[in-house]
Design a protein that fits this description.
single chain, 250 residues, Nucleotidyltransferase, domain 5, 3-stranded parallel beta sheet, two-stranded antiparallel sheet, 10 helices, 5 strands
């Protein structure tokens, strides 16, 4: 039973059974005792105003959870979570991730994880790479994220074990680094990116009438991710974080 409904049931019981204590009712319904007290009109007004602000943030950032909402509004995360829970506000839901089943059972690549336990102190030392597929009107569109750096870090997908890829990387003077076999958490950077990217893009790809519209939406979503979307760990967008870093060293 949703918490709001439990709260209403508790208040109904309290009205019908005035001799029963709030403690017993809250214990029976497994809800905090404070839910049985009436909030002040002033507090209700404050919560309603915050609710409107949260909805405006989610209009532009549909995948934001309570932590990012709190950062966007400059409020405490507990307060954001309380009001979102109070009014049943939830971010855009995510679907399960696509897995590369054809890579199952293949032997390890032999390329080590060169970045495990390390922390690059400046840009362009390590770039994490991966690709995902987007199904549009029955067609499979592959999207790859990549870049040139001293080390390129990927999973052990067959594409990254191919002779064409390894030879190309070696020709560029780039060191190849891979996560452990069957260890997707070691490439969580990319797993997280594509998870958030697809949510921000919107999972109903059929709404795009042409491939051009689809590609433009992909471009806009990546631009949003890099320049405006708040990252919980950074507490700001990647562009702003990079700008602050560069202004410190110049």
């Amino acid at each position: 039973m949703p918490s709001q409904k439990k709260r209403q049931v508790g208040k109904d019981l309290e009205a019908k059974l005035p001799k029963v204590s709030k403690a017993l009712i809250s214990f029976s319904l497994i809800i905090p005792r404070r839910n049985l007290y009436n909030h002040s009109t002033k507090q209700n007004g404050v919560d309603l105003a915050l609710k409107d602000q949260i909805l405006k943030v989610l209009e532009l950032n549909p995948s934001y959870g309570h932590r990012r909402v709190a950062l966007a509004l400059g409020i405490g995360k507990k307060r954001a979570r309380r009001v979102m829970k109070l009014y049943g506000i939830k971010p855009y839901k995510r679907k399960a991730r696509w897995t590369k089943k054809k890579d199952y059972g293949k032997p390890p690549s032999g390329y080590p994880n060169l970045i495990k336990g390390s922390c690059p102190l400046k840009p362009n030392i390590v770039v994490a790479g991966d690709f995902t597929r987007l199904i549009w009107n029955g067609r499979i569109i592959y999207l790859a994220t990549f870049g040139k750096s001293l080390i390129v870090y990927t999973d052990q997908g067959s594409e990254y074990n191919s002779k064409e890829y390894t030879k190309f990387m070696e020709g560029l003077g780039v060191k190849i680094s891979m996560s452990a076999k069957a260890g997707p958490w070691e490439n969580a950077y990319q797993e997280s990116f594509y998870d958030n990217f697809k949510t921000d893009l919107g999972l109903e790809f059929e709404r795009f009438e042409t491939i051009g519209e689809f590609v433009e939406a992909i471009h806009q979503t990546i631009s949003y991710y890099n320049n405006r979307r708040i990252h919980t760990k950074l507490r700001m967008s990647p562009f702003k974080f990079k700008w602050k870093f560069l202004t410190k060293i110049i």
